[in-house]
Amino acid sequence: MEKFQTFRREVDDHFYVLDQLKLPLTIEEIRINTIEDAWKVIKDMNVRGAPLIAVVATQGLRNELFNRDFKSVEELRKYVLQAVEYLRTSRPTAVNLQNDTERVRQTVIDFSLQQSVEEISQLQQLKQQLFQLIDSFNQQYIDACRQMSILGVDAIIKDFEEKHPEQAGQNAKLKVLTICNTGKLATPGDGTALGIVRELHRRGRLERLYIAETRPYNQGARLTASEAVLDKLPATLITDSMAGFLMQQGNIDFVVAGADRVAKNGDTANKIGTYTFAVLAKHHDVNFYVALPTQTIDENTLCGADIHIEQRPKNELTHVMGVQIAPTEIEVWNPSFDVTPSSLIKRIFHEGGEYECDRSQGNWKQMDAQSLK
Ligand code: MRU
């Protein structure tokens, strides 16, 4: 397989993203000039993954700020506030987009004009401040992935050795199941859940990575499998429906997933199918973990029942890579994500450690009943 670069900036207004819809067969880039270009590649899923969505949206905004001639700070402020609102409509569940654009929004709101300095130079100053902030998201995600991977692997190995004291200190290799794509194609850096897998491999402790194909969009088969091949990870592709049998046969030591939004009580929205794996893991006494940067935590959302779940178009289920596999007339239900109650999650890793939340609030059924009242 040919190597790829998820995104790159050439000069101030030349930003390119890899067209993930064409992977693994074709490596092709799309140039992003405007916020409309950024919105479209996010909506159409040429790029995806909670951190990457936020990076592409804010880099699209950076292009516009570079290219536009604003007459006053107020004009720039107005533009940014509108652009942020617009970009947020591209995909609703992944909260990184809301959180990172909130920092951009806050920067223009907080910027106060000084009477003694020419406005035009203050405009340039604000633009530079925004460029710096937007560019800093990249490094923040890289560092977050690295840190959560190291501390995640430490905790996972500790949990494993507590569960299997006979194997403690033996450098046992572990078998892991993951879903969707949480690697270099989903975030700057090595990845969240996939970062943990990579770190396990670096330490010589990965026996096998099982990759769920992740229907209907096949991010596992198309993207995670590509990353595994390029990095020469010992990896096996399965269909989503094989996960239960695999666990029943004792072939999974732990499951690790990423997240699109974690509610205050730890309920976690992630790719559709994640909840099923968490239930299966519970039944088979397999530890289930999630890993995310802190930008994925949404303390304004109390529990999973309050998370807005994106519905995707019908054709994503009736067609596979453009080939129709179901009758046109059939009705389709196609939620892009599901919610795993925090009670099913052993640990929630982020770059600063573990997300400590009140899991007694994490009873999905109880919350659901409340929200129906
Ligand atoms: O629909 P997608 O492909 O954007 O869904 C992506 C996921 O569900 C990922 O697990 C999540 O965004 C975390 S990526 C580090």
TrEMBL record:
Superkingdom of the organism of origin: Eukaryota
Ranges in a coiled coil: 113-140
Family, similarity comment: Belongs to the eIF-2B alpha/beta/delta subunits family.
Subunit and interaction comment: Homodimer.
Protein name: S-methyl-5-thioribose kinase
Full-sequence range covered: 1 to 373 of 779
